[in-house]
UniProtKB/TrEMBL annotation:
Domain of life of the native organism: Bacteria
Natural source organism: Amycolatopsis marina
Keywords: Membrane, Transmembrane, Transmembrane helix
Protein name (Swiss-Prot/TrEMBL): DUF948 domain-containing protein
Transmembrane segments: 6-27
Organism phylogeny: Bacteria, Bacillati, Actinomycetota, Actinomycetes, Pseudonocardiales
InterPro entries referenced in this protein's UniProt entry, alphabetically: UPF0478
Amino acid sequence: MSAGQVAALVAAGAFVLLVLLLAIPLIKLGRTLDEATIALRKAHENTDPLLHGANDTITHVNTQLERVDGITANAQAVSGNVSALSSVFTATLGGPLVKTAALSYGISKAVKARRNAKAVDSGKHSRRRKGFRR
């Protein structure tokens, strides 16, 4: 064997060793990719019922929201009617009612003032003269 053949034999052995060392990570990477493929397949199979359930839930929520919209519209109509009714009440009865309340307050104040004046007059006999006020 010549020196060139020995060098070629050593280079071939080194190449085989390099291929064996690189084959181990490539095999592990292949297994990892196989497991990832299986996981993705299972996830894809499980998402169909999940998406179907989510679609049913969204449909149910939309139905409930339509009911809430109807209730809100009715409540708005009721509040408008109450506002109109209070305006009518204020316009028809509010003015006279306020005037009546003011009149009754004034009368009660006048009656109390007159009673207080009579009580003061009856308490002081000698010092006050009729027709003289302070």
